[in-house]
Design a protein that fits this description.
The protein is built from three helices and two strands. By secondary structure, it is mainly alpha-helical. It has a two-stranded parallel sheet. It starts with 10 loop residues before the first strand and ends in a 14-residue tail after the last helix.
Length: about 110
């Protein structure tokens, strides 16, 4: 292999940050930014599958996020549950293993 050869990575990690700020900058509700972020996750999972990337790690909710307004945290939890209901079967059908890591006590 020479220096000009580019190989596909085996693992990609993404920190999901700025969806609310993105929406606010466009004059939209923060919740719409979070929804758009989930749409991007779906696209990333599909792209990783297409490129035979073995692992995708998403850092999606930090302990600091619990300090957000209760209504926003509730929306994020609803969005997460909706994603789980709608996407997990499709993920498993496509041989994608979903693992939730980190402190899951409050979930």
């Amino acid at each position: 292999m020479n220096d000009t050869t580019i190989t596909n990575p085996k693992h990609i990690a993404i920190i999901m940050d700025g969806n609310g700020r993105w929406a606010r900058a466009k004059g939209l509700p923060r919740t719409l930014g979070h929804k758009r972020g989930m749409d991007c996750v779906r696209s990333m999972v599909e792209a990783c599958s297409d490129k035979n990337i073995e692992a995708l790690t998403l850092f999606a909710f930090s302990t600091e996020n619990w300090r957000r307004p209760e209504k926003e945290v509730g929306y994020l939890m609803e969005l997460f549950l909706l994603m789980m209901r709608n996407e997990v079967k499709k993920l498993h059908k496509n041989n994608v293993i979903l693992r939730i890591i980190g402190n899951r006590d409050r979930f």
